Amino acid sequence: MKFEIQQEELQKALDVIANVVPSKTTLPILTCVLMEAAEGRLKLSATNLDVSITTATDKVEIKDEGKIALPADKFVSFVRTLRSGTIKFAQKGDKINLSCGSARMTQGTMNVEDYPALKVLEEVDGLDMEGALLTEMINETSYSVSRDETRPALMGINWEITPDSLTLVATDAHRLSRSYRKMNWAIKETRSMIVDTAGLRHLPRIVGGLKNEENASANITVFLGENQLSFRAGNTVLHARLLEGPFPDYNAVIPKDNDKDVTVDKGDLSQAIRRVSIMADRITSQIRMGVETGRMEVSAQGTDGSKSEDEIAISYEGDAVEIGFNFSYLLDILKNIKAETVVLSLRDSQSAALIKPVTDDGEETGLLCLLMPLRLAGE
Which of 46, 214, 336, 358 is most deeply buried (CB count within 10 A of its CB)? Predict the structure, then answer.
């Protein structure tokens, strides 16, 4: 295999796939990137068996076609350090020689026949949607997935696809995030699937790279496979595996009678939480929120007797209520909300709270977050 390519173009392609390459694996071949030069295109692929990404560029001059498996670690790092210019890449036996200006490197390859067969894109009934919107929905939910390997269904994001909507839901039993958007899709039946979060977390970077592709659409196409969910974004294809369910009946845990709606500025609340949480107990991470007409008091107390408190203005008229939360969970919710105003819907100190961002006009955005409270001392 022999080709020439601009440093920026090769680095851009490697940046798309490099994060999929596992740093530790029992299969050494998986530490490689698969490179294929054929028909005027250079295709690069990587997989960890759960997630696979393939990207391609035709901004390359191929002199000899070929296919190799090249260990990614040193190769990717070396390309990233190169100055702008033409990279000359040539394979000689089981080694490759790379040069760019005065820089040179030689690296051994691995047996390309040992590289696992990559998943095939099932291009049937593709669903188009705006890439930035899907990225937003993933960001709004992915932080709530569980890390408990004994409950694998909770380690994914539940997708509910209907002809006129998309709903993503994630939960770890302490918190829940549900992102809903209206859609107009050419699909006749409702589909529900649990998608591996590790695969979905690569989408924001892939979507972000679309703006660098000439004539690339800002849309991505979603393909619903039997065992995978696939995404085509410009010249890049991502495959994410599906997890076995069932996913919990999340609608059953969303309270319907929280009657205390507190409207608050997201920035003011986030700053107050960060400030008082410095004194919070490191084990429970508990902060206390006291709500009454027009004001909210946020406080924390450490096991060493240290205390902290702050007060912010809110829009609320009703009975006073106190409730405790894990401040880390609450900050996770707030930092993944784009709106500047949020509504906290409460009932009492022992019931789950609902957190909903709203627009300047007071309209809900389609995101609903649930957070379980912590029992306050003395209850």
Answer: 46
**8 A C-beta contact, residue 294 and residue 318:** no
- Tens digit of each residue's pLDDT (9 = 90 or more) over 95-151: 999 999 999 999 999 999 999 998 888 777 789 999 999 999 999 999 999 999 899
| Strand extents, DSSP E, 65-123 | 66-71, 86-92, 95-100, 103-108
Give tens-digit pLDDT for 31-89.
999 999 999 999 999 999 999 999 999 999 999 999 999 999 999 999 999 999 999 99
Query: Quick one: 223 and 244 in the same domain?
Result: yes
Phi then psi for residue 262, to 5 deg, are: -110, 120
Q: What angle do CA 20, 24, 25 make, to 5 degrees?
A: 90
Residue 379 lies in a domain: no
Identify whether 242 is part of a domain. yes
Residues in the chain: 379
Burial class (CB in 10 A: 0-12, 13-18, 19+), 118: middle
Q: What is the DSSP string of 2-36?
A: EEEEEHHHHHHHHHHHGGGS-SS-S-GGGGEEEEE
**Residue 236 and residue 138 in one domain:** yes
CB 294 within 8 A of CB 314: yes
Judge whether residue 215 has pLDDT over 50: no
Range of the domain at 32: 2-114
If you search the block for the tokens 């979905």, which residue do you land on?
200
d(CA 236, CA 45): 10
**Average pLDDT of the chain to the nearest whole number:** 93
Cβ neighbours of 235 (radius 10 Å): 18
Reported as a single tens digit per residue, the pLDDT across 303-336 is: 888 999 999 999 999 999 999 999 999 999 999 9
**Residue 204 and residue 215 in contact, taking contact as beta carbons nearer than 8 Å:** no
- Tell me the C-alpha distance between 69 and 30, whole Å: 9
